[in-house]
Amino acid sequence: MIRIVVVDDQALFVDGMRMILEAQEGFEVVGTAADGADALAVCRETRPDVVLMDIRMPVVDGIAATRLIRSEHPEPPPHVVVLTTVRHDRAVLDAIRAGASGFLLKDARPEFLAQAIRAVVDGQQVIAPAETFDLLRAAAIVRPQPEWSVLAALTERERELFALAAKGRSNAEIGAELYVAETTVKTHMRAILSKLGLASRIQLIAFAYEHRLVQ
User: Fold this and answer.
1) CB distance 101 to 210 below 8 Å
2) In the chain, domain spans
3) 103 with 95: CB under 8 angstroms?
4) Mean predicted confidence (pLDDT) in 144-148
């Protein structure tokens, strides 16, 4: 059972999201919150697997709440999936830097939402709409040249995996392309994230774009 907390300051949206999620097999909504401060308290009490987080809320916004939830919870911390109504919301990048594992539009279809939640829990792939890559490409414009030096700590094999993961490839796809087992890919990915100080695959993609390491 995947335990979920929904955080949004619109009560009708929260109620609708609860109905959608609990209609899915294997999902349980264990709590809701109307702002980031309440979200911290609810997460402490319920220890969810996934937090669906609105960005713009009173008291404590979704970016600050994401950072606090990811930092204060024991390993493994909840996966935070950011929700927004704005297709090109630059605040999404700040949420990703704060530790969010994914980004979805609030009008996402229920089956896509369910797929995204299962994916971030499994850690097998990054679920991110095309709008995310538009934002990342825009962020990369400020850097005139690729900054390959940031990958100095990686081995040659890890750089190969980094390049594929930065394009949004799943572990299975990477394994198939490099002719290695998926478990081997997972081991390498953990090492890559650790060496680069990153928390998730989507942070890796943001890192790659911001340093112009992928086109």
Assistant:
1) no
2) 2-122, 143-210
3) yes
4) 80
Task: Name, in order, each residue with C-beta under 8 angstroms of 38's C-beta and a sequence gap of 6 or more.
Answer: 7, 59
Under 8 Å between Cβ of 66 and 102? no
Place of tokens 């100080």: 197
The correct CATH number of 143-210 out of 3.30.565.10, 1.10.10.10, 3.40.50.170, 1.10.418.60 is 1.10.10.10
CA–CA separation, 152 vs 165, rounded Å? 17
Closest CA to 48 of 101, 3, 18: 3
User: Encoding tokens for residue 129?
Assistant: 């709409």
Length of the chain as a residue count: 215
Residue 45 burial (C-beta neighbours within 10 Å; 0-12, 13-18, 19+) = exposed
Note the pLDDT tens digit of each residue in 200-215: 888 888 888 888 887 6
179/24 Cα distance (integer angstroms)? 35
